[in-house]
Amino acid sequence: MTTEALALIVFLPLLAAAGAVVLPKAWLALMIRIGLLPLPVLLLIPTLEVAHNGAYRVALAGHDSPLGIAWQLDPLSLLMLWLNVGMTLLVSLHAGFSFRPGSDRAQRFWPLWLLLFAGMNALVLSADLFNIYVTLELVTLTAIGLIAVEGKPAALRAAMRYLLLALMASLLYLLGVGLIYGETGVLDLYMMTDRLEPGWLAITAMALMIVGLLIKAAIFPLHAWLPAAHGNAPGPVSAILSAMVVKVSIYLIWRLWFWSASEWNLDTAAQLMGVLGGLAIIYGSLAALVQPRLKMIIAYSTVAQLGYLLLLFPLASALAFQAASYHLISHGMAKAAMFLAAANILKSVGTDRLSRLAGIDQRLPLDVFALALGGVSIMGLPPSGGFLAKWLFLEAAWQAKAWGWLILVVLGGLLAAAYLFRVLAVICLHPRRHGGQASVRRAPNLASVAALLLALGAIVAGFTSAPILDLVEAGLPPGLQP
Amino acid sequence: MAPLLFWTPLLVVIVSALTGMVIFIAGEHHALLRIILNLVAAVLKLLLVAMIGILVLNGYTPEFRVSLVPGLDLVLRADALSMLFASLSAVLWLVTTVYAIAYLERSPNRARFFGFFSLCVAATMGISMAGNLLTFFIFYELLTLTTWPLVVHNGTATAIRSGAAYLRYTLSGGALFLVGLAWLYGISGPQAFVPGGSLAEHAVDARLSLQIIFVLLTVGMGVKAALFPLHGWLPQAMVAPAPVSALLHAVAVVKAGAFGLIRLVEDVYGAALVAELRLDLPLLIVAAFTILYGSVQALRQTDLKKRLAFSTVSQVSYIILGIAIGGPVATVGGLVHLVHQGLMKIILFFCAGIFANLLGVKRIDQLDGIGRRMPWTSACFTVGALGMIGLPPVAGFVSKWYLGAGAVAADRAWVVAVLVTSTVLNASYFLPVLKRIWLHPPPQHWPREVHVSRLETGSLVGSAIVAAMLSIAVGLLAGHPLSPLNWVDAIVAGYFP
User: Fold this and answer.
1) I want to staple A55 with a disulfide (CB 3.0 to 4.6 A). Which of A74, A112, A240, A273 is the partner?
2) What average pLDDT score do residues B144-168 get?
3) Which residues of B touch A (CB under 8 A)?
4) What angle do CA B290, B293, B294 make, to 5 degrees?
5) Tell me, what's the ipTM?
6) Which residue of B has its CA nearest to A417?
7) Which chain A residues touch B180 with a CB distance below 8 Å?
8) A385 → chain B, closest CA residue
9) Which pLDDT score, from 0 to 100, does residue B456 have?
10) pTM of the predicted model as reported, rounded to 2 decimal places
11) Whole-angstrom Cα distance, residue A409 to residue A397?
C-alpha cells in the first residue's frame, strides 16, 4: 500500500504534466487538479507507515541495491515531502490566479510546474546517487524553464546564467558519482557507509559532489546566479525556488555528510562549511541592505538565510539538526509568503522599486501584512517559527560552547531586521497625504490570501513545534543521536 | 472554576489581540464600529483584570501554559506583581483610548493606528502576565514590533528616522537579551518567576556567568526603561502623536522595561543574590546618574514634549533606584512609583497633546498665559507637574518618601542627596512652566489655533481630568486597603519575609 502511494506521489504529477501538454487547452484545469489535490491525502499513507515502523524502503521494479534502484522513506524525507506538497499547493493557489488556465502563458507554465513538483518528490525519496542526479537535473531544468516562462529579457538572462552554472554543478556532481561508483561499486546513499573509506579518491568524489550541490544551493561565494534568477522570475516561481528548490540541494548535502560519510572525521571541513554559512549570512544581508528593488531584497535574503542551514555542520548535534530543520521549514513558508506578496505588489504598482512603494499599505493591506509577518519570522523575532529555530540554534551553540556561532546567529537576526525594516519604513512613509487614497482598495483575492496563509503558517510554527520536532528527532542521522 | 482560572490570563491578552485584528479587517471606513470595539474591549479588559485581581487577592494564581519546544513553555500566570502592572495599563489604556479617539478624529490611517494600538496593549498584558523569562521576552519583542508602526504613524521623514532609531536601540537590546536568556537557560533551565529568585544554587559555580548574564539582561531591559546611556530613542520618539507618547511613557514601553528589571532583580535573581554578586551598587549608580542626567537634560529643553521625555528618563529610574537600594521600604517606593509615575506622566502628555493640537503650542515659551485660555487643561497639567516634583498630596510624594526612607534604612544615605537634588531640578524645570501658564499675559495670537466654539469639551480634556483625579486619589487614599501602596506592600512582604 505504501509503495503504491509513494509511486502515485511521484507519478501522478508526472502524468498530469504529460496530460497538460498533450490534451487540449480545456483539460488543463482538470490536469492541474489531478496532479496536485490528491497528494496530501496520498501522503497520509506513508505518514502512518513512518509513524509505525520508522522507515520504509522500496526497491523499484523489484531489484534492490546494489543492482536495482531504491527509494527510502524516513522521517526526514517524509518531512521534506510534506513541506513540498504543502508549499506547492499553497503557492499553486497563487499561480492559479496569476497563470489562470485558459491563457497561453498558463499552457506553458503548468506542465513545467507539475514536472518540477514530481521531480522534487522523487528527489527526496531517492536513495540512489545516480537516480538523484536524474531527478536533480529534472528539477533544475524545469526551474530554469519556469524562470524564463514569461519571456522577459531580464528573466531570460538570469535563466541563461543559472543554466550555465547549474550544468557545471551537475557535471561536478556526476563526476563525483562516477568516482564513488568506481571506488565502491554501490550508489546507495545508505549502503555506502561501510564501503566508503576516506581515501583520496573518495574524498575527491565527496568534495566534487558537495561543491556541485553548493552551487545549486547558491551558497556564498557560489551564489551569483540566485538573486537575478529569483528576483526576476514570476512570483510563484520565485516563491517555490527560494522555499524548496535550493533547499533540496542542502538536504542532499546533509544526506551525504551525515548518512553516507557518517564514519568520517570531518571536523575541519565542517568548520569550513560553517564559515561559508557565516559569510553567506553576512554578505547576503549586507547585499540585501543596498538593493533598490523589493524582490531583489527578498532574493538576497534567501542567500543569507541559506547560510544558517550550513551552521549544522560545525555544530553537529541533535539540537542543531532540529534547529536547521525547523529553520528550513519556517524560512520556506516565510520566504514564499514574502515573494508572493511582492509579486502582488509588483502587479498592482507596476514596479517593485522601493522608492515607488510609499504608502501602499493603504492600497494592499493584506499583501503588506503578509510581507511583514513573513519578515517577522525571517528576522527571528517571536512569536514565529523563525524565532524557535533561532532559539534552538542558540541552545545548540551554547551546548557546543561555540560562542562565535552564537554571536553570528544573533547578528544575522539584527541584519535581517535592518534590511526588512528598511522596506517597511518606506512603505509606511507617506510623503503626501491623500485624503481619498484610502478608498482605492482592491478586493482581496486568492493571490493575496495565499501569501497571507503562508505567512500565518510561519507565525503559527512559533507555537506548535512539537509534531515537527518529534518527527525530526525520529529521523536523526546515525552520527547525531543524542 | 478550574478551567476558567486556567484561561483568564490568556483571555486578557487575546481580548486586545482580537480587537486589533478585527480593527484591521474592518478597515478605515467603519469608524463607529472601531470606536465601539475599542471602548468595549477596553472596558472588558478592565473587568477581566479586576476579576483576576479578585482571584489573586483570594490566593489563587491562575496560570496558562503551553509548550513551544519540548522543555520550553509559554506561561501566562497572574501573581500580585502582574496585577500591579496589568491594572495600571488596563486603567490607563481605557483613558488613552478615549483620548486617542478624540485626538485622531480626522486624521488618516486610523485603522492601522488603532489596530496596532490594541496589539500593543495585548503585548503589554502578555508582559505583565508572563510567568517566566522566555514568555516575557516573547511579549517584550512583540511590543517592539507593535509600537514601531505607532512611532512612525505620521509618515514624515522625521518620523521614519526616529522609528529607525527606536528599532536600532530596542532590537539591539533585544538581541543582547536573547543571548543572556539562552545563556541563563543553558545554566539553569527555564526561568519561572519566583519571589526571591531561583538562581541561588548556581551562585558559586557560575558566578561570573551570572554576573555577565545580569548585565546582558539589564541592558536588554534598560533600553526600554531608558536607562542612561540607552535612552537616546525616547526623546526622538516624541514625533509620534500624543496618545502614542502617552502609551510609550506611561502605559507600555518604558514601563515594560522597568517592570522587567523588577522581575529580573526580585523574581529571577532575587535581591539577596543581586547583592551577593555585587551587582546592586552598579545598578544603583546607573539609576542615580540617570535620574540626575535626565533632569539636567530636561532643564535644557525648550520643546515641551522633549522636556517631558527627559523627565520620563529621570522618573522611571526612580523605580530602578528603589529595587537597587534593596530592603523592603525602598522596594515599596520603587514598585509603587511604577503606578504613580504612569498616572502623572500620562496627564502631562495628554495636556501637551491638547496644547499642541488645539492651539499649536509646542514650545515652552509659547505657553504664556495659556491658563486663561484653557483653564481645565492647565489645571490638570499643574497637578501632574506638582506630582512629579513630589508635592503632597499628589502621588509622587508617596514614592519619594518611601525611596528616601528606604535609602536611609539601607545605609545608603547619599541616595537621599540624589533625591533632593533631583527634586530641586524637577522643581526648576516644572515651576517656570507653571509660572508661564498661570502668571504671564497671553499673546495676541496663538501659533495655530483650531476654531471651534469651545476649546475644552469632550473626551480630550475629560481623559486628562480623569487621570489627574486618579493621581490625586492614589496619593490621598494611599492608606486604603486596595490602594497601589498597600498592594505593593503585600508584594514586597513576599520578597522580604
Assistant:
1) A74
2) 87
3) 24, 27-29, 66-70, 72, 74, 108-109, 112, 137-138, 141-142, 144-145, 148-149, 152, 155-157, 160, 163-164, 167, 171-172, 174-175, 178-179, 182-183, 185-186
4) 80
5) 0.87
6) B171
7) none
8) B68
9) 62
10) 0.90
11) 9
DSSP state of B454: -
Cell of A252: 542532499
Around Cβ A436, how many Cβ atoms within 10 Å?
7
Q: How far apart are CA B319 and CA B297, in angstroms?
A: 19
Residues B72, A482: Cα–Cα separation, whole Å: 18
Taking every pair of C-alpha atoms in chain B, what is the biggest distance, in angstroms? 71
Mean pLDDT of A302-327: 91
Contact in structure between B325 and B284 (CB atoms under 8 Å): yes
> Which three three-digit cell numbers place residue B206?
557560575
Cα(A161)–Cα(B219) distance, rounded to whole angstroms? 47
Residues 6+ apart with CB under 8 A from B467: B92, B95, B343, B346, B347, B350, B380, B384
Report the candidate in B113, B128, B109 with the shortest Cα–Cα distance to residue B12. Answer: B128
Residue A97, Cβ density class (10 Å: 0-12 exposed, 13-18 middle, ≥19 buried): buried
Average pLDDT of chain B?
85
Spatial distance between the Cα atoms of B235 and B300, rounded to a whole number of angstroms: 13
Cβ distance B182 to A441 less than 8 Å, yes or no, reads: no
- Residues A265 and A259: their CA atoms lie apart, in Å, by 13
The percentage of residues in chain A with a pLDDT greater than 90, rounded to a whole number, is 49
Q: What is the rounded CA–CA span in Å between residue B256 and residue B136?
A: 10
Amino acid, res. A379: M
Q: Which of B70, B137, B141 sits opposite A469 (nearest CB)?
A: B70
Distance CA B44, CA B46 (A): 5
